[in-house]
Amino acid sequence: MFSRGALGACRASSKVHLAQVSRSLATAAESSASVPLSEGVTEATVAALRPHYKSLLKKRSDDTVVQTGIILNRSPTLTRKPTPFERTYYAYQARIERALHNPLPTEFYFKPGSLLEGIFNREENARERKAWGRPGYKPKTKASAESALGEENESGLLPGEEPPPVLMSRTTEADRKGDVKSLDRKGDRNLYLLVQAKDEAGKDVWRFPQTAVDKEELLHEAVHRELQSPIGLGMDTWVVSRKPVGLYRPPVEPQPYLFFYKAHILAGQVRPDGKSIMDFAWLSKEEIAPRVDENYWDGVKDLLSDL
Amino acid sequence: MSAAPAVQVARSAAKSNRWRAVLNARKAKALTPRKPLKRDENGLPIPHVHVIVRDTHQSRIAEHYHNTLRDDLMYMTYTHKPADSKPPRKIRLSYDPEDPYVKHRYNPPIGGSFAWTRQALPPVTYENVIELERIQLHTMVKEALQSKSHLLGALMAFRAISGLSAEQGGMRTVGGVQIVRGKKQVQGWMRRNAPVGVKVDITGPQMYDFIGSLVHFVLPRIREFNGIPMPRPSSSLFSASAASGVVSFGLPPMAMGLFPQIEYNLDAYPNNYGMHVHFITSARGEGAQNRVRQLLSGFQIPFVRA
Question: Does the keyword Zinc-finger belong to this entry (chain A) (predicted)?
Fold first, then answer.
């Protein structure tokens, strides 16, 4: 599937993150000066944290330096609802198209006087009426159309004609109840999986699912491992790429760096285990903002779709 | 109270006098009576402005491409390039096109006329993600060599499938269904300039609608269809077909009747016509065809290893 160049690039850069993890701890602390700090964090705060950070790093294993986060996405299942302006524009263009369209050469497509021709003429009349508000279109052979349309039964259908399908509602049970755990909600929006878990300080936070990267493990392998864990076993997922789509740098150093991967849910549902993950929710972009930490939101908001 | 209207009348009189003076000074001509609109051969008025029909509806599959597929394709094909990486080495000197001394000198492409097939695909950014440009349908009707009236069935079938006619909706670039003529004289097979086939280029929302009917109505109902066969993995990525960013496949004659536009009145057509479908995209360069397959599988068109 990939071009040779792409595969070559994967091979060449596959060990990059291992070099990052195996870097000595002091170097990581010292080189942090070269990394631009995020907003609201000054050099003074980093310097004050440094002794604490060093003691932390001593007892911490390497795998917490880099972690992977998963942006698990349910893409829209319904077409977006057009805005009033778009609806007016489309209606206007449709009227122009109807005014300029080439008339159908019915003598080729239908046998004169056939049932199909009658159905077509009736539908064409309805379309004309919808566009211009009057039956401007007259079928050429009136007798043939009448003979075909004369056999209508009481429901207005011709013999052998199926009733038109009834469309499903755009709002579902989950929309009415406000059930954030259901994947049926908000069919025209992108939904993202947010889980409730404990952070390093033991506080309950809402965040994207994340996992530590083991030594000798590639970033995308950690993502696949997480999706094969008891949380992800109940769903079919597809990770979009082997490369991360974004990096979150924590504002204070002892927290891990997060490499985000994009994945799609194809079927199933999350199973929270109650220990590492207490709760979960499928949320659209603007619903995520109030739930997560402000710094975290600044780091991830550009990875999410506005739609 | 009574003074106010009098003042107004006086003012308006003064105003009109002033305007009359201005008009007299300009010696404005009276408006010439407008000529009636010109009429075409059918007796219909030709409007003053060039009316063009734009999108008449939301395209579900186009939105899927722009909202979901485009991001995914960018992430899938992204190659990380360190900021300090060197530009590619120039094999030999070429003339600087900005230099006035050699401005119009012929600048031969390095590597010959087929060098573009060996050019690496440009690094993916959010702007140059692969995009479908057009879909071309093509069929050859052999019987048309005997009598060109045999083309009529294929022509009408393509009109029904694509919904296009030449310059429709005031769009001068829309070619509609076109007749394909023989290029060469080949004894026993082809006559030069003889009409032997039809083709149609589909672009814009109609292109995505075509993909929709292909994926939902036609492909699932073709008998013994596993997917579009791919070339072997060992096949060259430099060949013109692999590098030009086009994926083509054929549909058997029985597939024509599966398009809902044709299925509606299949009896009207004298024959079933197979067709070639070409998906033409914006990708050019080494292995561009693989990118096209990625794009098309995002539209749920299945591929199998042959």
Answer: no
Interface of B with A in 228-267 (CB under 8 A): 237, 264-265, 267
Cα nearest neighbour of A95 on chain B: B56
Put simply, the answer to whether B71 touches A262 (Cβ < 8 Å) is yes
How far is the C-alpha of A292 from the C-alpha of A280, rounded, in Å?
13
Domain ranges of chain A: 11-77+174-303, 84-149
Nearest CB to B290: which of A3, A76, A101? Answer: A3
CATH 3.40.5.10 fits A11-77+174-303, yes or no: no
The two three-digit tokens of residue B184, written as one number: 């060469």
For residue B298, CA distances in Å to A93, A156, A165, B175, B218 come to 30, 41, 28, 28, 17
Q: Which residue of A has its CA nearest to B63?
A: A79
ipTM value > 0.95: no
H-assigned helices in chain B: 3-26, 60-64, 70-77, 115-118, 151-162, 204-213, 240-243, 260-263, 288-298
Q: Do B68 and A93 touch (CB under 8 A)?
A: no
Distance CA A185, CA A173 (A): 8
Cβ pair B78:A305 closer than 8 A: no
pLDDT of A41 above 70: no
Nearest CA in chain A to B295: A1
Q: Tell me whether A7 touches chain B (CB under 8 Å).
A: no
| Encoded tokens for B151 | 């083309």
Q: Is A72 helix (H, G, I), strand (E, B) or coil?
A: strand
Please name the residue that has the structure tokens 């975290």.
A296
Does A11 lie at the interface with B, CB-CB under 8 angstroms? Answer: no
CA atoms of A145 and A152, how far apart (whole Å): 12
Distance CA A227, CA A229 (A): 5
The number of residues making up chain A comes to 307
Q: Sort out which chain B residues have CB atoms less than 8 A from A86's CB and list them.
A: 58
Q: State the count of interchain CB pairs (< 8 A) between A and B.
A: 98
What single-letter amino acid sits at B143? E
Q: Does domain B60-77+124-305 have CATH number 3.30.1440.10?
A: yes
Name B157's bridge partners. Answer: none
Contacts of B91 (CB under 8 A, 6+ apart): B110, B111
Residues 22-61 of B with CB under 8 A from A: 51, 53-58, 60
Residues of chain B positioned with their CB less than 8 A from the CB of A240:
72, 75-76
Kindly report, residue by residue over A204-259, the tens digit of the pLDDT.
999 999 999 988 899 999 999 999 988 888 889 999 999 999 999 988 877 889 99
**pLDDT (tens digit per residue) in B236-274:** 998 999 999 999 999 999 999 999 999 989 999 999 999
pLDDT in tens, A149-159: 545 555 667 67
Could you state, in order of their start, the residue ranges of all structural domains in chain B?
Answer: 60-77+124-305
Cα–Cα distance for residue pair A268/B271, rounded to 1 Å:
46
Which string of DSSP letters, residue by residue, matches B186-205? BTTTB-TT-EEEEEEEE-HH
Q: Are the beta carbons of A100 and B169 separated by less than 8 Å? A: yes
Partner A, chain B 264-283, Cβ-Cβ below 8 Å: 264-265, 267-268
